[in-house]
């Protein structure tokens, strides 16, 4: 029980930390810093932080060649998820992008079912339908205007990459500490971002003000170091799918930041779409204990929350 509790708490902490991505990224975008530069400083500063922490603790960075190859793959996959998510912020509100990203728990469940023969229950299938319905509602706003197709495709690729990353972390033969795994993932991710900057021609810019450096440090610490270390611990303690569904707090955190800090619009249609995605995740979390009555109570509660929010606005 203590191990499971630790896993769930770490999963929740990882989700909340990861949901703070827009807080630093959008401020840097306001200062005309491009996505590649934001990601490079996020990863590079996180590598420095983790390296200094491991040196202070006297921990070795040595790994075998086989482990290094797998860590390189993980770094490329994770950085691909980050690159596509950050570029999607240029095409849609960060809160909506982060909510769309949250289909990754469903993708994890499907990957585990297809590749590792985990049984996909009727409840899980129902959850997938709900999640897709929620995405459809998010895709088209109340005024009839649709979200950017490019933005949505970028978020879907980000979600798939993140789902693959979680599954590989869970199923890989790696038996190294969470800190060491995260250090190498971020190191190879940093190299991938550098390569992407040369390929795309979107070169790394210099940070020139204290606010820029503060935002970059925040991105390195909260949605990177804290989130990844806690996520690895959670995956090892409770598995891929439960860790993924704990991410329900990610879009909520991002939406709250987007609305409260950056003045992004939260319409009724978008609110309903968010609720459907969260209910889909709750169904997957409930697993065998899923009962329609419980979902009804959850939906009713979320409906009351939305109603109060709209009256407050």
Can you give keywords for this protein?
single chain, globular
- State the total count of DSSP E strands: 0
How helical, in percent, are the residues? over 70%
Outline, from the CA principal axes?
globular
SSE string, helices as H and strands as E: HHHHHHHHHHHHHH
Q: What share of the residues does DSSP label as strand, in percent?
A: under 5%
Largest sheet: none
Mean pLDDT: 83
Number of helices: 14
Number of domains: 1
> How would you classify the helix and strand content by structural class?
mainly alpha
Question: Rg, please?
Answer: 19 Å
Uncertain regions spanning at least 5 consecutive residues: none
Cα-to-Cα separation, first versus last residue: 42 Å
